[in-house]
Write a structure and sequence with these properties.
This protein is 92% helix and 0% strand.
């Protein structure tokens, strides 16, 4: 279950960064995408600690 959440956050984060940089040109969207990627990384660390 945790890996699915991490994968979804990574996908959404990468999509937001790509859209923010190339399609919309909006810095707020890029920051939101980077935050999603960072949260996915934090969840990944916690998931590895549990095992």
């Amino acid at each position: 279950m945790t890996m699915a959440a991490i994968g979804a956050l990574l996908f959404a984060g990468l999509l937001l960064v790509f859209l923010g940089l190339f399609a919309a040109g909006n810095f707020v969207i890029v920051v939101t995408g980077v935050a999603a990627i960072a949260i996915a990384g934090i969840l990944s660390v916690f998931a590895q600690r549990r095992v």
